[in-house]
Amino acid sequence: QQQVKQSPQSLIVQKGGISIINCAYENTAFDYFPWYQQFPGKGPALLIAIRPDVSEKKEGRFTISFNKSAKQFSLHIMDSQPGDSATYFCAASMGYGGATNKLIFGTGTLLAVQP
Amino acid sequence: GAVVSQHPSRVICKSGTSVKIECRSLDFQATTMFWYRQFPKQSLMLMATSNEGSKATYEQGVEKDKFLINHASLTLSTLTVTSAHPEDSSFYICSAPGGARYNEQFFGPGTRLTVL
Predict the structure, then answer these.
(1) What are B48's strand-pairing partners?
(2) If you compute the radius of gyration of chain B from its CA atoms, what whole number of angstroms results?
(3) Which positions in chain B have a beta carbon within 8 angstroms of at least one beta carbon in chain A?
(4) How far apart are CA B114 and CA B108, in angstroms?
(5) Beta carbons of A41 and B104 less than 8 Å apart
(6) Using one digit for the tens of pLDDT, what is the confidence trace for B67-114?
(7) pLDDT tens, B12-39?
(8) Which among A109, B38, B68, B85 is least surrounded, fewest beta carbons within 10 Å?
(9) Which DSSP letter does residue B41 get?
(10) Residue B52 has what DSSP assignment?
């Protein structure tokens, strides 16, 4: 199965709160899991990415938690700010470092951080 | 990070005309580029993989005669929407793998196509 399931579809968080977005996959051949942030009318921008050999990766306020056995991964945004309001996409691909880098995207989560 | 540009950023055309969209990798070479389309409030759908010097690989359900892809150099891929119709109106985005981590995809800013 090539699908990546993402939830929730939309999320409202108060400023300073924690935003959590979840994704699940079926294909165990996936070995690269990035998260992208997209503002209206713009292309997606890479936020943070993880490989399945680690369970967590943190960059600033953004953390990916990865559960290989459950085939799930999630994005946590700490101290959420109004500027974080955007659509977030998880993705997966296989063949890390190889020629096949097709990204399979989740359905997206529209995050609104209220001041 | 690596930069990918697209031109034009926005185009409006009449039904039946053809539209060409350019995707350029500005500071790196890309033997492979990807083309996506995105409808409002939806996810990115991969249309095709553009391969420098060879034919593009199209995803299932994408008409290759409708969406012509040419990857003539290591920094340029073009997508031509032929005989465009209103249902082709969408946001078209390209990406290219590059940088120190080969799997990292850099996305262009997108092209908004409106077919009247």
Answers:
(1) B35, B58
(2) 13
(3) 1, 4, 6, 32, 34, 41-46, 49, 91, 93, 95, 97, 101-110, 112
(4) 18
(5) no
(6) 999 998 999 999 999 999 999 999 999 999 875 555 688 999 999 999
(7) 999 999 999 999 999 888 889 999 999 9
(8) B85
(9) T
(10) T
